[in-house]
Design a protein that fits this description.
Layout lengths: L7 E5 L7 H13 L10 E5 L1 H11 L4 H13 L11 H17 L14 H10 L2 H9 L5 E8 L4 E8 L6 E3 L2 E5 L4 H7 L9 E3 L2 E4 L10 H5 L4 E5 L19 H33 L16 E5 L5 H7 L6 H9 L9 H6 L3 H17 L1 H8 L2
Parallel strand pairs: 1-2, 1-9, 2-3, 4-6, 9-10
Antiparallel strand pairs: 3-4, 3-8, 5-6, 7-8
Helix pairs in contact: 1-3, 1-13, 2-3, 2-6, 4-11
């Protein structure tokens, strides 16, 4: 029977450029614990942009405060062309390529692999993350586990790649699996490979896409790797639900795209939290007797969710002027304009004016919950 020690898991869901919000929250946590070197987290799990944040922290986990400082500097210095190519000539070629493919059915040209080319992101990750150090940090016990999730196009399942020094076997469940691996840049590129927008990535001969796809139970890998408490930094604002939709014209492509990405990155998280609440209730109702699976006794999982207090789409639109001209033309073609209040823009706008604003927001929201965070992390 597995032991159930008090271990805190950090869960970082996806959200594209919204991932900057997570950095602000983590900066506040570093301040709340008086900037000490020791990480308050034992297991870190990331999906899509959250996987990048998780990996950058893990690579510097020996000094948690320093890792957050470096992570903040990366996000504050972002420009869109560090994530995907935005040169005018390249964007023109991409547009023509897609147009010819649609008109000719792929007769005159090969089918394009993606709308955008995120090769610049690959180079940035290789520059900023020492993957050998990352894996050594885990093998040395500085962190129990790192989890990076991607979606397998071939297996049609969510795959959690994990590195740990503990004796944890690979697992196979309906629609999801876990594979022990040494995390490298390919895993991160796979986890952020938004379908159609960015190209799929091959790992061990199989193609993978964004980790939020088919991720029905985003909390499960962190719990499986030993976490008994979960701190979850969501990138979806509760204010997103409060918009006035009266007298709305037919939704354009950007609105539909934003809806798809919002559901992709946050829909399964909140349904999984509901599932966790029900499990906790069952365990609480049977406190006089053990509730167990074949391998371990089940215990209640305490969790804390921190999410944006304002609508991040509105913040993104305030930064519209900072979009490169070539990209602005492409966005305009799909309905993203200056006053359109597009959710899609908030996922794709990797400009420092936007990321700095989200970092500030995340810091503010976390400091508003300072005592709650201190109690949860026992600091």
């Amino acid at each position: 029977m597995e032991s159930f020690d008090h271990k805190i898991g950090l869960v970082l869901p996806g959200g594209g450029a919204r991932g900057a919000y997570q950095v602000g929250v983590l900066k506040a946590i570093s301040n709340i614990q008086n900037r000490i070197e020791k990480s308050p987290f034992d297991v870190i799990s990331g999906t899509s942009a959250g996987a990048i944040n998780a990996s950058m922290i893990c690579a510097e986990i020996g000094n948690f405060h320093q890792s957050i400082f470096k992570l903040e500097n990366v996000w504050k210095g972002f420009t869109t062309n560090q994530i995907y190519r935005t040169e005018k000539l390249f964007m023109l070629k991409q547009s023509i390529h897609w147009l010819l493919t649609l008109i000719t059915g792929g007769v005159l040209t090969k089918n394009p692999r993606s709308l955008l080319d995120n090769q610049p992101l690959r180079e940035l990750l290789k520059e900023k993350i020492n993957f050998q150090t990352l894996n050594n940090n885990i093998y040395s016990g500085a962190l129990d586990a790192l989890i990076v999730t991607a979606a397998s196009y071939e297996e049609k399942e969510s795959v959690s790649f994990f590195t740990t020094s503990r004796k944890v076997e690979n697992w196979e469940k309906v629609g999801r699996s876990g594979k022990k691996s040494e995390i490298n840049v390919e895993h991160l590129m796979a986890s952020v490979a938004l379908p159609i927008i960015f190209p799929a990535i091959t790992i061990d001969g199989k193609y993978y896409g964004d980790g939020a796809m088919r991720q029905e139970t985003p909390l499960s890998p962190t719990i499986r790797l030993g976490a008994s408490n979960l701190l979850i930094i969501s990138t979806e604002s509760s204010k997103d639900q409060d918009r006035d939709h009266s007298d709305k014209i037919y939704p354009d492509f950007s609105e539909i795209g934003g809806y798809i990405l919002d559901g992709l990155f946050s829909g399964s998280l909140y349904s999984d939290l509901e599932r966790l609440d029900r499990i906790n209730q069952v365990i609480a109702l049977n406190e006089d007797q053990k509730v167990q699976t074949e391998t371990k006794e089940m215990k209640q999982i305490d969790y804390l969710v921190i999410s944006p207090s304002v609508d991040v789409s509105e913040i993104a639109m305030n930064c519209y002027k900072d979009i490169p001209l070539s990209l602005r033309m492409l966005f305009k073609g799909i309905g993203i304009e200056k006053n359109s209040n597009s959710e899609l823009l908030s996922f794709l706008l990797f400009e420092s004016s936007f990321t700095k604003s989200l970092i500030d927001l995340g810091f503010h929201d976390a400091m508003e919950k300072k005592q709650e965070i201190k109690n949860f992390l026992r600091i």
